[in-house]
């Protein structure tokens, strides 16, 4: 199924205004309109942007740009209307090209390129998500730690039931919290009744596919949380003392949480078609909630 299927037929005036004011998205509309139909590789080269940025913005404009049977990008009826308005006003701009430094910084701190394969291929999503989960579980068990949302804690001895319960809660809470806050922060929430109507009108198959992709992305985003358990495993195997210093250990915990927050933010932005500022708010909401739940649940079992 194409990622452009199952979209609402109309956009609000606010959403249209936001789209055409964004330089990259404006450049994409102009480029596709000028070519008529164009493949992803040619479009990326024409704009001079990264693959992650291209697919992220294309998902944002799923109601303006679609794909033909040969996977070339073409403008929809609304896209053609906007293209004519832009060209009639001679408002076209040169495709923005970031400097190599800016592109590198963007790729590191907001790595949409990491999640674009998940949303472009079901096979990648079905393999990468479980593989990331397997790596995380293996490292955590070998390092005698358990993951509870965005907290990592020692588990000596390892209680496999408690480990599975914490991990299951982490994934369930992650999916629910990220879905809820992304919808709440998106500005599309008007009332509980309107939200219920959107759920009723959504396609079950499309919703399940999107949920699976979000969980797969979430698995990838949690990989940095295996940093401390991995070093703990190294400590035990090679008789080192990397984590014996509390300051070093706490610093590594903060580092792993920070990396996961940035990855979660990129995953949410790509999955929910959100600006990075909003998606960062969603990731931080999950981070603070994880600490709140961990605090009130003490003493830990």
From TrEMBL:
Keywords: Membrane, Transmembrane, Transmembrane helix
Coiled coil (UniProt feature): none
Top-level lineage group: Archaea
Transmembrane feature ranges: 123-143, 163-186, 207-231, 251-271
Keyword Transmembrane helix carried by entry: yes
Protein name per Swiss-Prot or TrEMBL: Uncharacterized protein
Organism this protein belongs to: Caldiarchaeum subterraneum
């Amino acid at each position: 199924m194409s990622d452009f299927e199952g979209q609402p037929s109309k956009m609000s005036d606010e959403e249209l205004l936001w789209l055409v004011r964004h330089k990259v998205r404006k450049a994409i509309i102009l480029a596709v309109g000028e070519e008529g139909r164009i493949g992803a590789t040619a479009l990326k080269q024409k704009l001079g942007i990264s693959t992650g940025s291209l697919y992220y913005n294309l998902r944002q404009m799923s109601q303006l740009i679609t794909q033909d049977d040969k996977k070339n990008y073409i403008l929809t009826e609304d896209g053609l209307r906007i293209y004519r308005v832009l060209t009639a006003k001679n408002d076209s701009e040169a495709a923005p090209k970031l400097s190599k430094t800016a592109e590198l910084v963007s790729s590191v701190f907001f790595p949409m390129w990491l999640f674009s394969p998940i949303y472009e291929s079901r096979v990648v999503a079905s393999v990468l998500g479980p593989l990331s989960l397997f790596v995380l579980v293996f490292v955590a068990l070998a390092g005698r730690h358990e993951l509870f949302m965005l907290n990592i804690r020692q588990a000596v001895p390892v209680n496999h039931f408690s480990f599975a319960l914490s991990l299951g809660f982490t994934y369930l809470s992650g999916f629910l919290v990220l879905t809820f806050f992304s919808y709440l922060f998106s500005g599309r929430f008007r009332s509980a009744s309107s939200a219920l109507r959107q759920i009723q009108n959504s396609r079950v198959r499309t919703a399940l596919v999107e949920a699976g992709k979000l969980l797969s992305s979430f698995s990838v985003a949690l990989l940095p949380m295996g940093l401390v358990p991995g070093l703990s495993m190294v400590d035990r195997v090679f008789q080192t003392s990397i984590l014996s210093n509390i300051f070093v250990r706490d610093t590594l915990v903060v580092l792993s949480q920070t990396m996961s927050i940035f990855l979660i933010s990129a995953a949410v932005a790509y999955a929910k078609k959100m600006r990075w500022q909003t998606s960062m708010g969603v990731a931080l909401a999950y981070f603070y909630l994880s600490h709140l739940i961990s605090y009130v649940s003490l003493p830990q079992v």
